[in-house]
Amino acid sequence: MLDFVRRTAAGIVCSAGLVGAAYADDVVMNLGWATPLDGDYGVLAKKFEELAEEYSNGTIDVKLRCCAQIATEDDAFKALQLGTVDGYFISQNNVSPHWDLMDVFVLPYIFQSGDHLVEVATGPVGDLIKSKLQEATGVHLLTFGGPGYRDFFNSERPINSMADMEGLKIRVPKNEVMLATFEAFGAEPVPLAWSETPTALQTRTIDGGDNGTSVIQEMKFFEFAEHLTILDHFAGFAPVLASDRFMSKLDDAQREAVLRAATEAGAYHTEIKLAEIEGVREWLANEGGMKVTRPDRAPFIEAAQKVQQEFAADRGPEFLELVNAIQAAAE
After folding, report:
1. Are residues 167 and 196 in the same domain?
2. Model's pTM, two decimal places?
3. For residue 217, what are the domain limits?
4. Which strands, in side-by-side order, build the sheet including 60-65?
5. I want to staple 143 with a disulfide (CB 3.0 to 4.6 A). Which of 31, 32, 262, 324 is the partner?
6. Are residues 256 and 314 in the same domain?
7. pLDDT band at residue 21, thresholds of 50, 70 and 90?
8. Do 272 and 282 fall into the same domain?
9. Residue 331: predicted pLDDT
10. 306 and 258 within one domain
11. Are both 156 and 242 inside the same structural domain?
């Protein structure tokens, strides 16, 4: 699978024809995200910055704006549509309130493995998602970035079975699929903006939540919730999006530079992510002091399949077609 990613990036390199090209005026791209500079998103952002500036012969200046400097993840999509933000990392669950087809990537256990996720992102389904998103919202999806899982954490008790989820107040993004999933698991989901989550966890307004494995480490959530549960229930990406206003400032060569940089940075990030997941989990257990459980997933998968079926039936034929395409990519 990674060979496929490398070949895709190499093909773009060969076809770009950027050396010696004439460029338009210099352009600044403010690229934002909500987590720390040296975190997971920062790895992808720094690589994209390096490549975009190199491939544009320095006519594109990428400014990295971590830590919600230019927007929060909850309001960034609207800002991209308005053109007040150039680029931003927005997890798929925070895209889908603005474009509900993205929920095909949020469905619990929709991906069978990291390789399956990469196959979808770099193949026809990923291309279709990009084109449909741009057509419907005007927002450009530059790269999906590397795959990861959301791990569950809480401050109350270890989770050894689905019965242990009962009654836990769990922070969930304002996403219908995720709310339905944790209800199916027996918890009490609390829809909460990302910006409010650290405080809610520290004050015990919530018992826990789920986030990308590396985010739990970066945000030091292990200091407030000692129980880590590995379910691999949600898999996801690190999507980098850009506004149409920014993209329209670019001439053809600069646009090619941005897309080439995004593709190669995404492939680079994918290799890192696939290699690091278990290492971060080990760090959380050993250095972070979290107590890790890996309960039998069968009851969780059974509950998740019902959520998949409900949303596929409710969202209509276009949504169902994408679900079927994702499942077919695993075969």
Report:
1. yes
2. 0.89
3. 149-235+278-328
4. 60-65, 27-32, 87-89, 240-242, 140-143
5. 262
6. no
7. very low
8. no
9. 81
10. no
11. no
Contact between 256 and 16 under an 8 Å Cβ cutoff? The reply is: yes
Interval 129-183: pLDDT, tens: 999 999 999 999 999 999 999 999 999 999 999 999 999 999 999 999 999 999 9
User: Is residue 215 within 8 Å of 35, Cβ to Cβ?
Assistant: yes
Task: Answer yes or no: do 141 and 215 share one domain.
Answer: no
Separation of alpha carbons 11 and 21, rounded Å: 18
| Residues 18, 49 share a domain | yes
Q: What is the mean pLDDT of the chain?
A: 93
The alpha helices in 138-251, defined as continuous H runs, are 176-184, 197-202, 213-218, 244-248
Give φ, ψ of 90 to 5 degrees. Answer: -135, 120
135 and 194 share one domain: no
* The total number of structural domains that make up the chain: 2
On the question of pLDDT at 23 being above 70, the answer is: no
Q: Would you say residue 227 has pLDDT above 90?
A: yes
* Cβ-count burial 145-169 (b if 16+ within 10 Å, e if not): bbbbbbbbbbbeeebeebebbeebb
CB 176: neighbour CB atoms within 10 A?
Answer: 18
Above 80 in pLDDT, residue 261? yes
Residue 297 burial by Cβ neighbours in a 10 Å radius (0-12, 13-18, 19+): middle
